[in-house]
Specification:
The chain is mostly helical. The protein is built from 29 helices and four strands. It is globular.
Length: 703
């Protein structure tokens, strides 16, 4: 009798002794491949730098970086192709923790983090501005969210041996509705997120190749599909590891170079504090500058002009059209240059087509000019903790309280959203064990921190560079990168001589958050090959996150909705094939939405985190740690959290609120919280609802 249980232990011990050398050999092989890849990447960058010095045109450098890096990712994706369900969905559960941490960091270091976060700190300072909370809240929230993942969620999910996040809800609560709601939430938050990534892909591809933004989207989309279409999680994991190396080098090289140029120390996170005091001094000088005050007065004149137009839209629109036609006739009568006539004709064609369009456009431009009419071009002082002043008058105290409240609300949503983001949690299904999941989260934090510590440094270094080199230069001697980026998208960069003195003032320069990192090498005067590397890094960040998101969406639609809600039966291989084609369809739909340029990257991403925070985390945590959580409680809590969050987002979106009846619209913000932090309402309500309904339904069952 005693020998029976010993045999499995003996066999397990033998298997462990056999598996251990195999695992060591597997990891050693991975390390060799990774070492060769890093050497090859550094050699490629060095070769491109040598070629630039030898006269290689900038028009070739960008496309070469785009083509070769995307082809490298595609080669990894093709090599990792598979139709095996375990390999396609969870990479065979054999990814070593260090490499899974690297892939998770790439998955996490999306276009928002790589492209937009430094720009947000440049524009918003440390805490954000009224109406646009942010700044350090993004870094603190996203990093703190990993702690929640490590402590509360990742080990428990890995122990359940599942494939997707909706799997957890069905296994834990039973029935189909928990899984269906989880799948719907996964699709909503992931689709919003992937649109932002593909927008970033189009932005970078168009800058590297010079093609139109929409064509740039399609070029980048081909790389996304080659990485994720054929091999699922197996291919995505190794392409993300390769992409992380690219984006790490692409971010650290320019920020280290800029730090060394300004401070003589390449360790930017340690040295950039010296520039904060200089920026504060420069801001004080700009606030007292007569030229800057002239710029403010020019913007105020524009504000009055738009106010007059909006007072009588039909008459103002007709007057502008008449003046534009007269201008074209005068140019033709004087036999002016063709370029001037074409430009005047384009201005006429670009005018609003009707009164409604004119009112919408002029209202938007009125708000923009009102913002630019503030000191420092509407930017807060860089080191200001919050808007307003706690020791000031009543208005300043109210601004301070509102700014701090929005900062904390966004921090809450980003932390909780990180803990519930499906494409992130799926990564911890791929490690060999529960201990591997914990180690993987730790490695993820290490690899994320390598970049996150440099992001505020880059924002400060670029602001100092702009204040000391671009400001004060002549308009007829502007660097070429300004005109090039303005052609890509005028909302990203515009420089206008508002006071007519021919000198660039700080208030005359408008930078979009999505531009700063991509333009950093040119702002700092670095070789153009570094610009190509940075763009390739931004492309890697967008592609890596888009891969994981598209797989999450297609899994939710096929595994968790289609096959769960129908009686259709299919083999695992057939499900994988259907998932691949669903992924293709979703990618094309996301590309279509991204081509409409619905918003900047950061607001889109933050909305997806609010949805994830309210839909998944309260019910998931209660389901893991409170055994009395019931199916009815989970379903009701998820519905309440998702419904409240989406409602708050919709009623404060100009385009979407038109779809709702007036009776459903509530004027104003709730407690002054901006829509970007909608999850601050949905998540607590979801938690309370799940808890209360579970108590009620559990007591009924017990009776």
């Amino acid at each position: 009798m005693t020998d029976v249980p010993m045999k499995p232990r003996r066999h397990a011990a033998i298997r462990g002794r056999v598996a251990e050398p195999v695992e060591r050999s597997y990891i050693a092989r991975l390390n060799r491949v990774m070492g060769l890849y890093v050497i090859g990447l550094l050699g490629f960058v060095g070769a491109m730098a040598w070629a630039e010095q030898r006269g290689l045109s900038r028009h070739w450098i960008g496309p070469i970086f785009l083509f070769l890096t995307v082809m490298a990712y595609a080669a990894v994706g093709v090599y990792g192709r598979t139709s095996d369900p375990a390999e396609y969905y969870v990479a065979g559960r054999r990814i070593p923790p260090i490499y899974n941490g690297m892939a998770t960091a790439a998955d996490w270091m999306s276009a928002a983090s790589f492209i937009s976060l430094s720009g947000a700190l440049y524009l918003q300072g440390f805490s954000g501005v009224p109406g646009v909370p942010g700044g350090l809240a993004y870094m603190l929230g996203w990093t703190g969210g990993f702690v929640l993942v490590a402590m509360l969620i990742a080990p428990a999910l890995r122990a359940m041996q599942l494939y997707t996040i909706p799997d957890f809800f069905q296994v834990r609560f039973g029935g189909s509705w928990p899984r269906i709601l989880a799948a719907i939430g996964a699709v909503l938050c992931s689709f919003t997120y992937v649109v932002a990534q593909i927008y970033g892909v189009g932005l970078i591809a168009s800058r590297l190749t010079g093609v139109q933004f929409e064509i740039g989207i399609m070029l980048g989309l081909g790389g996304v599909l080659l990485c994720s279409f054929l091999g699922g999680m197996r291919a995505i994991t190794w392409t993300q590891v390769a992409q992380y190396i690219v984006l790490l080098l692409a971010f650290l090289i320019p920020v280290s170079w800029l730090s060394y140029k300004q401070l003589g120390n390449p360790a930017a996170p340690l040295a950039y504090g010296q520039q904060l005091g200089k920026i504060a001094e420069r801001e004080g000088a700009l606030l007292a500058s007569d030229a800057e005050k002239q710029v403010i007065a020019a913007y105020e004149n524009r504000v009055r002009d738009y106010q007059e137009r909006l007072a009588d839209v039909p008459a103002a629109l007709e007057r502008e059209r008449r003046e534009a036609r007269e201008r074209i006739q005068q140019l033709r009568s004087r036999n002016a240059e063709v370029d001037l006539i074409v430009a005047a004709s384009r201005e006429l064609l670009a005018m609003p087509r009707d009164e409604a369009e004119a009112r919408a456009r002029w209202t938007r431009e009125l708000a923009e000019n009102q913002e630019r009419a503030r000191p420092l071009g509407g930017l807060p002082r860089h080191t200001q903790p919050f808007a307003g002043d706690p020791a000031g008058d009543e208005t300043q105290q109210a601004q301070y309280e509102l700014s701090r409240r929005n900062f904390l609300a966004l921090l809450f949503c980003l932390m909780l959203g990180t803990a519930g983001m499906p494409h992130l949690l799926m990564r911890y299904y791929t490690v060999p064990s529960v201990a591997g999941a914990r180690a993987s989260v730790a490695w993820s934090l290490v690899f994320v921190a390598l970049l996150y510590l440099s992001i505020p440094a880059l924002a400060a270094l670029v602001k100092f560079e702009m204040m000391t080199h671009l400001v004060g230069s002549r308009f007829d001697a502007l660097p070429g990168w300004i005109a090039q980026w303005a052609r890509v998208d005028p909302s990203l960069l515009s420089v206008h001589d508002m006071n007519g003195d021919g000198i660039v003032q700080f208030g005359e320069v408008h930078l979009g958050a999505d531009l700063l990192v991509l333009a950093t090498p040119e702002i700092g005067g670095l070789p153009y090959v570094v610009s190509g590397l940075v763009a390739a890094g931004g492309l890697a960040a967008a592609l890596s996150t888009a891969d994981g998101l598209l797989l999450t969406i297609s899994n939710a639609l096929v595994r968790d909705l289609y096959f769960q809600s129908t009686r259709h039966r299919a083999s695992p291989e057939q499900r994988v094939i259907l998932t691949k084609f669903t992924l293709l369809t979703v990618a094309l739909a996301a590309a279509f939405v991204a081509a409409l340029k619905p918003s900047e990257i950061l607001p889109l991403v933050a909305a997806s985190f609010s949805i994830a925070a309210a839909t998944f985390v309260p019910t998931m945590v209660l389901g893991i740690y409170w055994r009395r959580t019931t199916r009815a409680g989970a379903v009701t809590g998820m519905l309440v959290g998702l419904g409240v969050t989406v409602y708050y987002l919709v009623i404060h979106n100009t385009a979407l609120r038109a779809l709702l009846p007036q009776s459903m619209l509530v004027p104003g913000l709730w407690w002054g919280i901006e829509p970007i932090s909608a999850g601050v309402f949905g998540a607590p309500l979801s938690f309370v609802t799940t808890w209360a309904v579970s108590l009620l339904t559990r007591s009924r069952v017990s009776r």
